[in-house]
Every structure is written in structure tokens, then in C-alpha cells.
Here is the input.
Amino acid sequence: MTLRHMRIFICVCDENNMTKAAIKLHMTQPSVSLAIQELESHYKTLLFERLGHRLFITEAGQRLLIYARHIVNLNQQAEASMQSYGEHYKLRIGASVTIGESVLVDLVQYMYKINPQQEIFSEIHNTAELETMLLKDDLDMALVEGKIQSEYLIVQPFMSDELVFIISPQSSILEKDEITLSDLAELSFFVREAGSGTRDLFENTMQQHDIKIRIAGAYNNAETIKKAVIAGLGASVISRRAVSQELKQGNLASFEVKNIAFKRNFSVVYHKNKYLSPALQSMIALCHNFESIT
Here is the structure.
């Protein structure tokens, strides 16, 4: 099978339609259909179920798609490397929101100190989105706070983290000698969006203690959550790293609840079939040594 077959297959998967794929690839629809048929004949399995005018990728197709993206991307990397021999190609790094707000910039800064010529592109998404991007080979590596589901991704913890309850310093709940589980049920919570590692850990912990929480808002960034809590609109659970300044300045207060702890790890994640370039190896090593150099 050729790179052409792989590129056509990827485009059909992305467009979920052979006609749309043909338009995007500047090909005829019969040529696209023939390429898919040749793939299915070669691998002796169906890659798509054809129901009416709709395509549904099969389990075999999903498996091939993972390899196809990496085959095409590795070819592109080889082309870029050979055509600009001695130059660096762009390192693509993703980070979940908490890591992006508390760790990512320092990591990139240290990487530039090690190799000033290295080009780096970084972006922030929640853990679920980053996992999808790694599987599609839209990122070289990601730094996540949540749980990774895919068996195709390698996960390496590199830093410990703790979530804390936060509330306005003026809240009457802080006057209690001991805040209980039943007190939590009376609070309104501002949480991260679905797919966030922080939200998953919070909700799973609450479920384990059979606590039904009241959600007042869901936001995709920590800053908005902190503003809502500072304004006295409710409470939240957030990484201690993300609120260290606000706690020191007295703009926010934290509290503890007996038998409840939110411990987790930040992890480096990359695809198991990923070619680990020297730059990527350096960034991974930097993550593992981050706490010792800061």
C-alpha cells in the first residue's frame, strides 16, 4: 500500500464521505472509492460499513487509521528533515488547563535555554481533547492532569499535584470548627467543563463518598472559576498550584473535609508509535526533572 492510499483513507475518515473527500483531494469520486476498495482487498477486511449513502468506519478501519496518520506524519517529518538538513522542525506540545496555567510556560522557557533555535508550538485543551489530538497525531506530546483511556498512548507521571476546596474568605462556613460531608451538599460548586481531569477527579471523589453536589456553573478555565468564588457565588475544587497567589493574598480561602483528599499526578503522554526526535526526548526529560530545576 502506498502513501497515496493512506492519505485518501485518512481524508475519507475525516470527511466521513467519499464525495467530500474527493472534492478536498481534487480527485474524482470513483478514484477515491477505488483506492478504498484496494485497501480493503489488500488487508482482506472491510474498513467501512456502507449503509445507504452513509459510511461507518469499522473496528479494523479505526485501527488502520491510527497507523495511517503516523505513517503519513512520519513521512512529512522525514521530508522536512531532509529538505532542511541541520535545521529544527517544530515541536508541538499540548497541555491541560491547570498545567498550562502553572507549568507550561516555565517548561517552554527552559527548553529555549537548552536549545534557543528550537521552534515550539504549544496549545491548551482539556485532557479528553488532548487525547484525541495525540491519536490523530496533531501533537507530539501532551501534559495532562486527567486519566488517559487509549491503549495506544504511553503515560509517564512527572509531577504530583493536589486539589483543594476554595471559597470566599467571607463565607460563614469557615466559622465552623469542622466542615463535614453534609456541609458540602449545601454548597454550590463551580467546576471545569466535561472532559477535564480536575472535574473527573472531583466528581469521582464525591461519588465515592455518596455526596450529591450542586453545580452552579461549568467553565473551561481556572480564572473564571476563581473570580466566581472570590465574588462569593459558590465554592470550587482546584489545583493548589493554580490558587497559590490568591491564597497568600487572602483573596481566597481553602478548607479541609475529614477523609477527603484529592491527590493526582501530572503526566507526560505520547503515542507509542511516535518517533522520539532529540528535541522531543529533551522535552520529556525536562518534564521529569522539572521539580528539581525550579
Notes: The chain has a mean pLDDT of 91. Residues 87 and 107 are 22 Å apart (CA to CA). The longest strand covers residues 153-167.
